[in-house]
Write a structure and sequence with these properties.
- A two-stranded antiparallel ribbon has the order 1-2.
- It has three helices and two strands; from the N terminus they run ββααα.
- By secondary structure, it is mainly alpha-helical.
- It has helices at about 10-20, 25-30, 40-65; strands at about 1-5, 10.
- Helix 1 runs parallel beside helix 3 (about 40-65).
- It is elongated.
Length: about 70
């Protein structure tokens, strides 16, 4: 689905960035331009970034247990 109409950025694009390690709203804005025009997409961008950060932290915690 299109998250940012102004820059034509989809949730798939944002989730792909998140899988590649882009886990903050600022980084996503720099990569895609989303949230830099009208700002209506920022809640969804934040949600995707938050999910990515949570996954990153969960993975880090699991790595610490294995060490």
């Amino acid at each position: 689905m299109i998250v940012c109409v102004c820059k034509r950025v989809s949730d798939r694009q944002l989730r792909a960035l998140a899988r590649d390690g882009v886990t903050s709203v600022c980084e996503m804005q720099l990569e895609t331009g989303c949230g830099t025009c009208c700002g209506k997409c920022l809640p969804m961008v934040r949600e995707i970034a938050d999910e990515a950060q949570q996954r990153e932290m969960a993975g880090f915690g699991m790595g610490m247990l294995a060490a």
